[in-house]
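Much of the work behind modern protein science is quiet bookkeeping, done one molecule at a time. Below is the pair of lines this work produces for a single protein:

***
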Amino acid sequence: MTTRRQFIEGAVAAGTAVATIPAVAMALGPYAERASCLRLERVIFDERFPEAHAFANVARKRSVATSAINDSVHELWYHDLYYRWRDQKAPVAGITDHRALFLLEMMAGDAGMRVVHRVHHLESNGSFTHRVFGPLAQRGEISSQLSAAGTDWARRAAAIVMSWPNLPTPTGSAHSDILTAAVQALDPRTLISWVIR
């Protein structure tokens, strides 16, 4: 069993993340323009939330398999992801609460994978703000897109993860703040969109 310390050290040592969204990719030069989208094995969503259903619908329209969970990832892990990740790295994305993401992150660590992007979708009085974590060069663009989407933010969040380029970039603290996301205090029902690769 991987300890929390081993997981964090492994994530820091792993050294790659990805760039996303064409406007941000332009800053990475000609190589980024040739990057294809990351091929997602599936999108995982917490069916208790209407925003998560909207997120999953975008994945289905793009012919990506979806898996619904209801507060727990254990069934999905025991009957599917464990075997899939045992055989090969299979990138996934999703929108879940913090507890489900924490468990998926630990399980992914055992398979040599990690969370490279996450957004905390913070609800207050019926409206949402979005806190982006991951490659620093992308945060502003992603945040702007989510804010501009207004009440349609869940579909925009899905489009962002579905368009994630298959392009490695450094994840050290000079380039990414993904490790700081895990220490944020969150309401248990806060939705988080994310990419694991």
About this structure: The two ends are 20 Å apart (CA to CA).
